[in-house]
């Protein structure tokens, strides 16, 4: 899969150290705009967060859906709407944000402040899936957030492996309604087994080690060659107990954070996944605040990212500098790739007050 970094955003030169320490409050004060750093273009209004409730007849959304399946080693297979078919049927879809047409016209994978890239599965998602497979992480009983979820594969995996609740957040409401929710539904088929007791006893770990070498190949074959070919869903999907564990949100991180903090009790997540979300340094303050406020004291943030995002300016080194300066999290590298454009998976843990 190729990615087009035809960003509607000039290269960011902002050092994260210059970024405002009170992103949430100040962004609100700033007349609710996201600065793209380009004064010649009108700033986009901040996308107000909202919760999305799956439609009352959710099965209708995935009847006849054309989907692919990605299988990573011993992980449960994950289904997601086929991207090509999705693009071809874009004009038939409800799209209050008008991003489907706009991204197709501009042939861009990201339009800052308008569309943040959630319609595609980005490659670091696969890195993180592989790492979870390798380490045998299971999610039994955990509260999980897939932050910047796009297609939602990471959250869906946690759901299938027994998470207590999974919340999905994407910038765009069209992504949530047209892609994330249908993908969750596709994976909630009654014939799907939710890994639970076996996983808790470490079954995944043993399989991971055996299949380590072939793992990446499996992923590429399934996804890039669509082999086996995409399937049509014909299963009755009206009964979805797994769906009751999910909440779906769209909107900018600042307003998302404010919205979920209003719920009673406010959520604290044991696991936060965030893949390919640190490309824009101007988002670091609010992203950091969101992670800080929503992570449970012993929770883990799994961050999958490229070293550098050309044309946008963000990347792991700048984000690590930012995190270090804030002094809230420890960062450990779990995986550092070395082919082509470097990719990484890191984990963030909250420092205890006695550590600081
Ligand atoms: C490049 S996409 C990655 C999608 C998905 N995680 C993946 O790996 O396939 C980046 C995601 O980050 C989220 N995002 C980026 N900036 C955001 C912001 N300022 N507020 C809320 N979400 C944002 C969007 O939801 C978008 O889907």
Task: Give the secondary structure arrangement, pairings included.
Layout: H1 23-29, E1 33-34, E2 44-45, E3 50-52, H2 59-62, E4 66-70, E5 78-81, H3 83-88, H4 99-106, H5 123-135, E6 143-147, H6 153-160, E7 165-170, H7 173-186, H8 197-200, H9 203-210, H10 215-224, E8 231-232, E9 246-250, H11 253-261, E10 269-275, H12 284-294, E11 295-306, H13 316-326, E12 329-336, E13 343-350
Parallel strand pairs: 6-7, 6-10, 7-9, 10-11
Antiparallel strand pairs: 1-2, 3-9, 4-5, 4-8, 11-13, 12-13
The structure holds S-adenosylmethionine.
Query: Count the helices. How many?
Result: 13
Q: What would you say the CATH architecture is? A: 3-Layer(aba) Sandwich
Report Rg: 19 Å
Shape: globular
Which cofactor or ligand species appear?
S-adenosylmethionine
What does this structure look like?
This protein has 356 residues and is of the alpha/beta class. It has a single domain, classed as Rossmann fold (3-Layer(aba) Sandwich), CATH 3.40.50.150. Helix content is 32%, strand content 19%. It has 13 helices and 13 strands. It has helices at 23-29, 59-62, 83-88, 99-106, 123-135, 153-160, 173-186, 197-200, 203-210, 215-224, 253-261, 284-294, 316-326; strands at 33-34, 44-45, 50-52, 66-70, 78-81, 143-147, 165-170, 231-232, 246-250, 269-275, 295-306, 329-336, 343-350. The strands form 3 sheets. The protein has an 8-stranded mixed beta sheet, with helices on both faces. The protein has a 3-stranded antiparallel beta sheet with strand order 5-4-8. Strands 1-2 form a two-stranded antiparallel sheet. Strand 4 (66-70) and strand 5 form a beta hairpin. Helix 11 (253-261) packs parallel to helix 12 (284-294). The longest helix is centred in the middle third of the chain and has 14 residues, at 173-186. The radius of gyration is 19 Å and the shape is globular. Residues 1-42 and 191-226 have low confidence and may be disordered.
């Amino acid at each position: 899969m190729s990615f087009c970094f035809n960003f509607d955003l000039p290269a960011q030169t902002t050092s994260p150290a210059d970024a405002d320490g009170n992103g949430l409050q100040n962004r609100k004060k700033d007349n609710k705009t996201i600065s793209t750093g380009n004064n010649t273009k009108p700033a986009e209004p901040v996308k107000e967060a909202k919760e999305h409730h799956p439609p009352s007849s959710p099965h209708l959304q995935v009847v006849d859906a054309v989907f692919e399946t990605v299988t990573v080693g011993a992980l449960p297979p994950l289904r997601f709407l086929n991207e090509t078919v999705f693009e071809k049927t874009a004009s038939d879809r409800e799209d209050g944000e008008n991003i489907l047409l706009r991204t197709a016209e501009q042939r861009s994978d990201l339009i800052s402040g308008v569309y943040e890239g959630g319609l595609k599965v980005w490659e670091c998602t696969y890195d993180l899936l592989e790492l979870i497979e390798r380490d045998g992480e299971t999610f039994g009983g955990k509260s999980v957030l897939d932050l910047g979820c796009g297609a939602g594969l990471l959250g869906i995996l946690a759901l299938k492996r027994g998470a207590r609740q999974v919340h999905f957040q994407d910038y765009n409401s069209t992504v949530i309604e047209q892609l994330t929710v249908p993908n969750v539904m596709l994976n909630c088929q009654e014939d799907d087994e939710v890994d639970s007791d076996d996983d808790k006893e470490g079954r995944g770990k043993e399989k991971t080690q055996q299949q380590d070498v072939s793992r990446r190949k499996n992923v590429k074959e399934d996804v890039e060659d669509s082999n086996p070919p995409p399937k049509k869903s014909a299963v009755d999907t009206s009964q979805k107990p797994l769906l009751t564990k999910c909440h779906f949100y769209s909107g900018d991180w600042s307003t998302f954070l404010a919205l979920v903090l209003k719920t009673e009790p406010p959520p604290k997540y044991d696991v936060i996944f965030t893949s390919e979300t640190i490309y824009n340094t101007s988002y670091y303050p609010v992203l950091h605040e969101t992670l800080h406020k929503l992570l449970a004291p012993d929770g883990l943030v799994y961050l999958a990212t490229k070293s550098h995002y050309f044309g946008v300016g963000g990347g792991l080194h700048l984000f690590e500098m930012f995190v270090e300066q804030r002094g809230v999290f420890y960062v450990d590298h779990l995986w550092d790739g070395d082919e082509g454009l470097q990719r990484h998976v890191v984990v963030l843990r909250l420092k205890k007050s006695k550590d600081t």
